[in-house]
Amino acid sequence: MKVLVLFMCIGVFLFASGTIEGDIERQPLNISAIVMFLLFVGATLMITYWASKRTKTASDFYTAGGGITGFQNGLAIAGDYMSAASFLGISGLVYLAGYDGLIYSIGFLVGWPIILFLISERLRNLGKYTFADVASFRLKQEPIRILAAFGAIATVILYLIAQMVGSGKLIELLFGLPYEYAVILVGVLMILYVTFGGMLATTWVQIIKAGLLLSGATFMAVAVLYHFDFSFEKLFSSAVKVHDKGKDIMSPGGLVSDPVSAISLGVALMFGTAGLPHILMRFFTVSDAKEARKSVFFATGFIGYFYILTFIIGFGAIVMVLKNPEYLDLAKQAMSGGSPLIGGKNMAAIHLSHAVGGDFFLGFISAVAFATILAVVSGLTLAGASAISHDLYANVFEKGVCDEVKEMRVSKIATVLLGIIAIGLGIAFEKQNIAFVVGLAFAIAASSNFPVLFLSMFWSKLTTRGAVVGGVSGLATAIILVILGPIVWIDILGYEEAIFPYKYPALFSVTVAFVFIWLFSITDNSKRARKDKAGFMAQDIRSQTGIGAEGASSH
């Protein structure tokens, strides 16, 4: 069956590659890119077949049976985080704005110590499959799981929209495949990985992709430094000479000009990282809390190293791409802002790969960029399916009567539905400016998921009422402020002036969430509140030792 699907995918790809139409200026057909793309798809489908033979129980499906090592999980987590947006986007921002591009990579990275030092051990000891297991450990199951599942699904769908649109545009540009075919192909492969292989297949796809991406980015960075005799001074001075902004590319303040926006962006990136459901879910794939800590240690190292590479790649592209007449159109696009996703500045890394390694390396990086998107959407889909099947179906709608077989069946159905929804939204949003989507996903994760999760583990006075009111308030505030902000209100709806003046709402929405959780918890004197507070000691013992009750006070 899987071999048949593979040949169908190859057939559709080769047939459609000859159909060059639409308004995107595509690359000349790159045979090496297509061959590497097909090799990756074939290899990952074989991994999925192998994983399907080892995925028998719910634990296997959701968490790979807890058999992933700390190093493997750290590499997979890094793979989850090193998306195409990071690889193409961060290097593109550096290419466009110089030093300022670092604010995004640093914001992403500083979220990891929060997970490492504060929540990884407790998360692993308290949870089973999803972060809702942890948030609802001592609180009332139904409302907390519904809130957590809604936050997880909203984050997943928003993130999926960005990834699907990005994958469609990237494949359309690089391989000549029509946008709709590209989105459908990604959706079908994503459904196959998750439905048949579960977390085991998703993890190994991420590991392979992370290895390929780190290897390719390392080669590019070394090639750039070799060109400048491994002197950062020569690299930066050459970039200043050729860039339109001159010395300004070495100064901060161009992308985020006011302190409120800078702090708000930092809050979203920091706390949003600690609230992403597909990242949190990975801590349940290891055997114990020690391996969970190792996971974050290795992930932090890999991600930090990767963002250093993107900084070098971005500055290398400024010099080596802008100096090359072959890429003058790219330069003009980039300096004028380019496409919000794939065109212009975000193609800097792709063009640099051709400058340093010719057609073969361009093909390799193009295939890796596609693999990056494919691996990330698989992890997102699994997290969304888990929220639907485990949190909602098994623990809310069919609590006490749902067995593993039913739960896994629902999870696979949810995977297919999420895949179809992702394909539909990816096609529907093709012509839209979706720059706000990833920002909204991080804002929801920071404003709804993280406060409830964090306080459920560390604050003894948290109550179910406080968690629900605060989580819903943070979620609603984030969504409303994004709609009223400049990206949606001006850029999409066409109004002249935004009601809310800042692009990034996290500073306000996270504050609302924490304040409302505190207020509605300390004023809650109900019987349920007393039970919530009394359960903290047992939870605290289990969170630190892994030994204790299974959250019996929740019911």
Output the keywords:
mainly alpha, disordered N terminus, 555 residues, Sodium/glucose cotransporter
The CATH topology name reads Sodium/glucose cotransporter
Query: In percent, how helical is the residue content?
Result: over 70%
Please tell me how large the radius of gyration is.
23 Å
Separate helix tally: 22
| Uncertain stretches | 1-25, 330-344, 551-555
Principal-axes geometry comes out as: globular
Structural class: mainly alpha
Q: State the domain count.
A: 1
In words, what does this structure look like?
- This protein is mainly alpha-helical.
- The protein has helices at 2-17, 31-52, 58-63, 70-81, 84-97, 102-126, 131-135, 141-175, 179-227, 232-242, 259-273, 277-280, 289-322, 328-335, 348-397, 404-428, 435-458, 464-484, 486-492, 506-522, 527-534, 536-545.
- α2 crosses α9 (179-227), α2 runs parallel beside α15 and α9 packs across α15 (348-397).
- The radius of gyration is 23 Å and the shape is globular.
- The two termini are 43 Å apart.
